[in-house]
Design brief:
Helices cover 64% and strands 0% of the residues. With 56 residues, it is mainly α.
């Protein structure tokens, strides 16, 4: 399967799973394809992490 297609599938399935983004991150780290690395950096830079919610 092409790395870009695998990335696309993981992004869309990540919404269904709590750990999906972590699994995606691990896949991106292990992928030797430079295009995937660049797409990941764009994704991370364009979406800042949500603010931490304090439990009350």
């Amino acid at each position: 399967m092409a790395p870009i297609k695998k990335l696309w599938i993981r992004v869309h399935s990540a919404q269904k799973k709590k750990r999906g983004i972590y699994i995606l991150y691990e896949d991106v780290k292990s992928c030797p394809c430079e295009d995937v690395q660049i797409l990941w950096s764009i994704l991370v830079e364009s979406h800042p992490p949500p603010p931490l919610r304090l439990k009350q």
